[in-house]
Amino acid sequence: MSSRIASALEDLMQHGGAEESVLGVARRGVVTVTSGMSSGTGWVALGNGVIVTSWRTVGFQAEVTLSTEEGRRAAGRVVAVDAERDLAFVLPLEAIGSAPLPLRADPLPRLGEAVMTLIATPGDTLVTAMAVVCAEGRGGELAALDPDLGVRAGRGGSPVIDAVGRVIGVITTARRSGRDPLDRSRCVLPVGLLSRDLRALDVPAEGLGERTLIHRCPGCTEAFSADNDRCESCGILLPHAYETESPGAERVVRDALVALGLVANKARVGPRAWRIQHRALGGDATPSEVTVRLDSVGLQVILRVPLVRLPSANHEPFYRLLLTANDQTSGVCRLSLAGDVVVLSFSEPVSAFASEHDVAAVFHDLVRLADQYRKVLAELFGAEPLRDGSW
């Protein structure tokens, strides 16, 4: 971005004083959308309060929390989603004091146009980022920005604002046509391509909140739920709010969970993490939580099971026992500390996990060994047993 364009845009954004500047007005229409452990950016688009955000922010949740930069909070209900375009629309269930931002459906984002976006971050602080449109996105295509905001844009949903404060698009992780499926650059979905969605939602809020939330398959448009990995009608793999950049490794984990009779989409808790409850054959009647992770480059599958909390006393003999167990009894598994929690972990190359082992046996053996260690550590040291994600 040239310094001349950036300077001109900044001057326009600040025109009118700090309180009534273009940027100041825009900030009041932007909110943080929180869904479980996920959060992203949203902005008020309609007079009835409907907020545009990204589907990757809300995932399969129907209820979210909205918060403004001024500290106001309200519950929100997801009333419409489009997983293929990475869009979600949220209705506030109480007033948040934010007016809708003006929209510019035409002209489309123009090549070389200087723009600004507001990005929600943890703590409800909005970060301002300037960029230039480097691809116009005509013919229904997505536009692109330079610099690519990448991870700065979080889970998407941020409004892209022109020099006079109008929203010309929304940051999305939907794939641009003709690009590699792994191209995860944040692109701009022009407001003009949202017109039909917004018209359908521009109704009294009372009736809108009673609508049933429907997720539709991007292949055949049939309804689907998070309880399925594949569309029951056309058979394609269904999208998930979390994705990894290692589709081959992700497929290994999905197939492993299917072998256990589990739905990977339903068990997924992060871009490279799944969480299940598993009971070892012939083991304790109470299941243990197993977290399945892929390393950052998708080369290793890592299984972890919580055992006990660190005891309040006798730390030296406790640590000595852990070290001895790692040398003599744990085999390919390892005992380690995660904060004040002892965990049992197993790591295997993705290729070996997929082809050289009975997946069910790996889970059974890990959980059975965890049951044994948990019992010993609790009896000898009074350590608090753990079986789930409460740690």
Commentary on this structure:
Helices cover 24% and strands 30% of the residues. By secondary structure, the protein is an alpha+beta fold. The relative contact order is 0.10. The longest helix is centred in the C-terminal third of the chain and has 23 residues, at 359-381.
N-to-C CA distance? 46 Å
Content-based structural category? alpha+beta
Low-confidence parts: 178-184
- What is the N-to-C order of secondary-structure elements (H for helix, E for strand)? HHEEEHEEEEEEEEEHHEEHHEEEEHEEHH
Mean pLDDT across every amino acid position: 84
> How many distinct beta strands?
20
Strand content: 25-35%
Shape: elongated
Helix percentage range:
10-25%
Tell me the radius of gyration: 24 Å
- Characterize the biggest β-sheet: 6 strands, antiparallel, barrel
Count the helices. How many? 10
Strand order of the largest sheet: 1-2-3-6-5-4
InterPro entries: Peptidase_S1_PA (IPR009003)
Organism: Polyangium mundeleinium
Protein name: Serine protease
GO biological process, one term: proteolysis
